[in-house]
Amino acid sequence: MSVNKLTSAIALALTLPLLALLALCVFYAGGLNMPVAGAGAAAFALQAAAYLVLSSEIVKPLSALASASAGKGPGLPEPGRRFPSEIEAIKSYVLSAGALLDEYREQHRNLLMSIPDILLELDKSGSVIFINNTALDVTGYAEDEVLGRSFLDLIAAEWKPRWQSTLALLQEGEAAGNVDLKIVLASGAPSFFEFNAVPLWKDGIVAGCCCIGRDIEERRKMITELEAARRHAEEATAKLKKTVNDLEEFSLLAVRRELKMQELREMFVRLKEEHEINKEFPG
Question: Edge to edge, what strands does the sheet with 190-202 contain?
Fold first, then answer.
């Protein structure tokens, strides 16, 4: 039934009772005649038809809905029927999809574990939730000794403030690069590492960070040795410069002495000639 027809039926159901009531009033007022009686009868008949139409159109979908909920009706299976083949197909699909997802996860984990650089994943508070094989090999820790542990606990005391400021920067969504930290190894010995860290986002919120690092202990030793060699070279240069200055001053003194000796010889020769002295000038 169309919307227009249904609307018309509702309108008739609402207006026809008024016509029937009007006919009754005229009857009781003593003005009953054939036209009024015919109008009243027609109004009652049309009202009854409108109610029949409404009931059929409303009860029909309600009945269909009740049949569907009971498992009856066209296109529906018999009540109590099972779907073993369909259920098994769905189960098989879900299991295969889960197995494929587990395989991808394992491949992803193996890839991260085999990266030659140190790789750490931390949660927002700075606790370690992932560490790869390279980090374990370099630091000497076992995986269960690190997972769930605050990264701050692995840092030497004098370098903790540097990591705390870096973590605050990451929590604000900023990346941090070339961060040198002294890590305490499993053996208790400290070693320098350089880290680059980026925040990890989830639903627009920083959920943690990823840190990639490398052992720079040998590089720092080389830098320290180079700096020491530079200082030694500067000190040697200063000493050499002083020595050269001393030699220059000594040479100048020697020249002056030689000039003075030459002047004395000439004076002695003059005095010898003037006084007829037979002695030679010493030296």
Answer: 128-131, 118-123, 205-215, 190-202, 176-184
pLDDT of residue 64: 56
Residue with tokens 């009857």: 27
**pLDDT, mean of residues 36-63:** 56
Distance from chain centroid for Cα 157: 27
Under 8 Å between Cβ of 119 and 137: no
End-to-end CA distance of the chain: 147
- Quickly list H helices, the chain: 3-28, 34-69, 84-113, 133-139, 143-146, 160-171, 217-275
| Residue 203 Ramachandran class (φ > 0 left, ψ -120 to 50 alpha, else beta) | left
In this predicted structure, what is the pLDDT of residue 165?
Answer: 96
Residues 6+ apart with CB under 8 A from 138: 118, 191, 215
Phi, psi of 128 (to 5 degrees): -80, 125
**Confidence (pLDDT) at 180:** 93
- Nearest Cα neighbor of 73 from 62, 89, 86 is 62
- The whole-angstrom separation of Cα 57 and Cα 107 is 61
DSSP assignment of 15-34: HHHHHHHHHHHHHHTT---H
pLDDT confidence of residue 79: 52
CB–CB of 46/12 below 8 Å? yes
Of residues 57, 20, 61, the one with CA closest to residue 39: 20
20: number of Cβ within 10 Å: 18
What is the Cα–Cα distance from 118 to 112, expressed in whole angstroms? 10
Question: Which is more confidently placed, 130 or 1?
Answer: 130
Residue type, 252: L
Cβ atoms of 169 and 205 within 8 Å: the answer is no
- The answer to whether 211 and 123 are in contact (CB under 8 A) is no
